[in-house]
Amino acid sequence: MARRKRKEETPEWTPPEFDEVAYMRTEMEGARAAVVVIIWALAGAIISYALFALNLPLVAFFAGLFFATLLYWILPMVKVHVKDFKRKDWAGHGITYFFSWLAFWILAINAPFSDFTDPTAGEFTAGVYNSAVTPPEPGTVVCAGPAGGRITIPQGLTNDTVYLLFRAADNVGVTSVSVTVDSMPVTGAVEQVSGLSACRSSGQYLPGTYAISIPIVSDFSFTISVTATDGVGRIARGGVLVLVT
To answer: pTM of the predicted model, to two decimals?
Structure first.
């Protein structure tokens, strides 16, 4: 009887009543805070972009991180009640800020929104042909690349023109390409090639591959220089020594 009495006297546990109003209020505050955090991340990305444009990439990075600490004061200023925020709430909003800021910043400093990358100019290949055949047929010119810092080409009996291939590329696009021989501008037209060329009768070239024909002068050793300019005025230069034997 004593055992049964103790079992009957054990109080039953009842779950607390669910406060739906308090729950909805907490969720709405969390949603408002998330929206403010994302907007603040955009502001931080704008500051980072401006500093990056001033060639201060490290400062831009830490400035963006510093903006996250200001959320402690910004959220109450926009009527977000943070007094009930726990450590996990602040950690969650901090993570949201970091990845939102990083995404906005990376998008802002890359194409098509910005161009902070210099173009490239180089990858030279050259051969010689007879200007009486203009333009030369695809694959009829024997072309060679640099070896030992220069391109050496046997002239032959009737060849009088150098056929030069090179690349001038940019992440957005090259707007102008100029070629000089021993610092003297070349009057020949620079043409972009994608498939066939005098050096090759099949296959595809990488984007930004150009060709130009240069008459051989009396001096059979000369330096060919290429200058590539992109849409925001960034410049790349490349050159190669050509020796016609």
So the answer is: 0.72
